[in-house]
Amino acid sequence: MEVVRYPIETWSRPQLEDNYHNLVEELQNCQKKIKENEKEIKAFHSRFRKNLLQRKKNNDTTVEREKFDECVKEKQILEMKLKAAKHQLLLYTNPMARAATASAITGRSTFRQQPPQSTWRTRADGAKVLATPGSRGGGGVSIDRAPMASSLKRHCSC
């Protein structure tokens, strides 16, 4: 690379002063541009770091949320296993345990709801009969046996 050398020896004093002032002005302008560029670089750097920290924070919260969901699911599974273990323990240690005790330990109701006692009647032969409105004692439909011919004639309009 060749270095171009100006013929300074041939320049007059006013030309030298003009060239000097032009170079000094050019130097000051370059220094201003350098400072402006450095400020822009700092601003870009701070924005970049801010965005990077936000992304990292968002990723951390997402990971924490996933961990939280996994822990909740695992807790539910463990609670179910604990109830099952209590129930099995109760049944295997005392097979004659009452359903009320089992429901108290496991938190589940094992009773079947039955209709009120007033709707069920026992006939003289020992069969349970569902009492119909208006029937007192002898009428009704048996749940233990097939209907008798006499009751069919009574209900049938044949």
Automatic annotation (TrEMBL):
Quick one: a GO biological-process term for this protein?
Answer: non-motile cilium assembly
Enumerate the UniProt keywords alphabetically.
Coiled coil
**GO CC terms in record:** ciliary transition zone
Q: Where is this region: Disordered?
A: 131-158
Which InterPro entries does the UniProt entry name for this protein?
Answer: RPGRIP1_fam
Q: Which residues form a coiled coil?
A: 13-47
Query: Does Coiled coil appear among the keywords?
Result: yes
* Annotated protein name in UniProt: Uncharacterized protein
- Tell me what organism the protein belongs to: Caenorhabditis angaria
Q: What is the lineage of its organism?
A: Eukaryota, Metazoa, Ecdysozoa, Nematoda, Chromadorea
